Records
---
Amino acid sequence: MAEISASLPAFTPKSRAQRLREALRYYLPTVLVAFSVLVIWELAVRVLNIQQFLLPRPSAIFEAWFEEFQTFISGGGSILFQASGATLYSAIGGFLLGCGAGVFVALATARWTIISEAMMPFAIAANSVPIIAFAPVTNNWFGLTNPASKMAIVAVIVFFPTMINTVRGLTMVEPRQLELMQSYAARPWKILRALRIPNALPYILSALRVASALSVIGAVVAEFFGGPRATLGVYITQEAAGFNFARAWTGIIMASAIGISFYVVVLLVERWAMPWHVSFRKKS
């Protein structure tokens, strides 16, 4: 044992400077590309004299956003930030409803095959219908200004990918592991808790990452069909209709920021829930 341990390389923790260099090496290309796109965008609009209603300058968009930010900080009640909060509320509510229902149905379908055969056609049909067909119906059901109408749209969008991925993770279990559990006379609930759910975690969290972006898209698109003024979909539509295109683009940027933040939160939850996964071991 002493000879084996002596032959193994000694583990030396990375210094703060090494971690900083690795972080810069990883994130610097993304930052440079984003900065280059903004510079080219600004120069192209100025040099080619592109009209504002076609494409406003990034500097004009930032000025409009900064004005809204100053109003928000001073307590004046910024419509942009109120709209962002309302859209985030609808996205999170629909995300929880749709993903929760998707996981619940997947657990039932993985346990009873007849439920899978009965539910799958309806799930595929619901996923095939465009958002614009559901929005007027849910607005009529829950009311035009009720956030539940937007949550219902988001729930329909995120339900299908969550259910499909969860079913795949619950059923694609290594046969030898399943046979081992059965040889110990493990009950179905024990197999589900100790084997199937841990095996399905990477699939579930991968679906949640996709659903985090889809939820924001669904909430904003649903708001295009009506709702309170303080929602991003209505804000973007009204500002564009009033030829305030820089302010309309601030709404688009806020929607993108919400989607990215939501995705990062789900990614952090994924790292916390399964640090043992091979993808994180390779990165570390």
---
Amino acid sequence: MEKSNDTHLVEKITHLKEEKDAIILVHNYQRGEIQDIADFLGDSLALSRQAGELTCKMIVFCGVRFMAETAKIISPDKVVLLPRKEASCPMANMINKEELQKMKIKYPEARVVSYVNTTAEIKAESDACCTSANAIAVVQNIDAERVIFIPDKNLANYVSRFTDKEVIPYNGYCYVHVRIRAEDIKKAKKIHPDAVVFVHPECPPEVIELADEVASTAGMLKLARASEARKFIIGTEEGLIYRLKKENPEKKFFAAGPALICRNMKLTRLEDVYLSLKEERYKVEVEDNIASRARKALNEMLKYA
């Protein structure tokens, strides 16, 4: 019965997309049934780039708020919808404008690189944005010897390994990735000794030390396709495993630990996408003065896409 209802909803969504000239962008951490209706499926960098290239009138962004805000900033003339208005990113909410300004006062000669997992207001206060896929390139190329990196301390620590610049971290983190422990990796390797370990750079340093590869979700997809290995331990949100299995049916993928689920990413359901298109809810807006400054930081990020 549920399968039939899903099929009916997908048909309605397809019809509304055509009627309203809409494109559905979906992040790799979304539910499987949401990934299946994507026009474009990817990580933050790929979806940001895609948002700037689309010629449609409307974008339905199946992800969390900062992603939909980014799409609106890059494509201000398009209607951008977030199917679940409460879908936010806890890490993005860990830093506010006042806290960033304190860091800028403390380190006046430093430039600010903000992870794309930040609010539009924070992006507007930044010199450049980055994603996990291009954080190293952005930091290496920014014109400063000291870089304030916000908000993820683990990504900041990882980036610092590849540059002589001083990377000054903020004490933020992803609650999903910090749940992955070194003990989880060791246990998984004991069960699957011939598996290759992929982890996300948002993971703690002791987890990164045990990985065969450290990569963004897009990087993991590319590595898995190219690898001759047949088993993989995946250290990131479980939504990626759905896509990995779908694209590599002859290979096996295992989670690096229990409960690797982002509750906010899993809020969006097919009914939400349908109602978002039908009622054009919930529209994402960004104030012009914030958007114009944030756009400059995002353009710096897109140079290294």
